[in-house]
Specification:
Blueprint: H1 2-7, H2 12-47, E1 51-74, E2 77-92, E3 95-102, H3 105-110, H4 124-142, E4 147-152, E5 156-161, H5 168-209
Length: 210
Amino acid sequence: MARSRVAYEYTEAEDKSMRLGFLLIAAGLLSLLGLGCCWLRPALQERGGGVSANCTVLAVRQLGERFACTFSCGAACRGTARYPCLQVLVRTSRSSAPALLHEDERQLRTNPKCSYIPPCTRDDQENSENVTYKQKYWKEKVGSQPFTCYFNQHLRPDDVMLKRTHDETVLLHCFLWPLVTFLVGVLIVVLTICAKSLAVRAEAIKKKKH
């Protein structure tokens, strides 16, 4: 009995392998729980059941109001500049009421009054030129051509998104890598147990032959 017990004891290398496997399993589970509670749930709420629709531009205009943005000119250099507010009003295929177009959910949260926030530079004139370029794009290049947008009539009936911040690919990676970590941990544990079991059986067979 004593010999049998000793035979089933794990070596130092096998013990480290088992610990690594259990560590990866725990890390995978905690990552899934953490991402699910802290990131995935808000991401799904942001999507909010919004569906794709066809949008058509109704009007493109600049408001007289200017908004502040923060630019960076080095590690310890930051400042504030201003840019004009561009509004792109559209009509969706799911509603006849006009809605304000936004780049994505982040832009909507940053400035819900405008459709576009330019890359912030120190020069206000350069910021204005970037906004004017975007205005010409919507007027001349897009014009009356329909394009895909995302619309949620229940949560945000007055706003539409040009793109989603959290698309299906991002949500897939949110699940994929913690799941891979968990499965690798399980695989390490199973292979270590199987290798130990085979080694013990081989040793037992060898002793019987002798």
